[in-house]
Amino acid sequence: MDTIIGCVTDLLPEKEPLDNPKEIIKSIQIRLKNTNSEEHIRAISDAILVARHHPKLLKPHINSINRKVVQFLNGQRIFDVRLACQSAGELFRTMRCTDRPLFDDIVTGLMNRTADKNKNIRIDANWALDKMVISIPPLYSIKSIANCSQHKNPAVKIAQLRLMHCVTVIADPMKILTGIAGLKKARQLILKSCVATIEDPNSEIRFLSKKLMQLLKSTCYESFCSSLVQDISWDELKIAGKNLNMETLAADILKKNTK
């Protein structure tokens, strides 16, 4: 897997705070309406500069910027895609906007790019997704990541499980297990994703799935078992038990429920 350690926003270098952010925002709006893609690049770059120092001023215009980011993410030019990935990461960090469907569209675009043929794009996409799980509330992150559960590419599955593990650690595994603070849906999506990949042909996918399940199991065994019963089917329960050295799990739960 590509390392993202030390990844920097090389296409969006740090600059001094703006003296005239309101004027820059006006120019961004004009540039976005232009048909020239170079103007769109300048608009996105300027938007990131405003977001870093004046996020409140940019907030009313964030959806139009996000739409352009989505367009670039789905484009063909390597520079445009890389700029979109790096911009998405910066906007997750500074703006923390979760307006749907644009938020989901950006996350899906980034997830797809984790399997890109270009190494720099893969690194940029993973970096942006890391910024997302650090900056965005856990349930929003998990829901959007889970949208890619049916993806066939191993790189996307690996990214999905890696990010779900990060979210679980950040949110607190116990909070995920107990489903407090609205995290019940997140727990359901995490367990479903793990069970669906725990017998995957790809060894790294199997490893990441088991690693996340073991984290939850070791946090609180009883809560983990209770969560499995609530969130997955009987057949899935047997798969989980077999792969987590919990061969008697299904039988024990059945015995307990028939008492």
From TrEMBL:
Taxonomic superkingdom: Eukaryota
InterPro entries, alphabetized: ARM-like, ARM-type_fold, TOG
Start and end residues of each TOG domain: 10-250
Signal sequence annotation: none
BP-aspect Gene Ontology terms: microtubule cytoskeleton organization
Protein name: TOG domain-containing protein
Biological source species: Macrosiphum euphorbiae
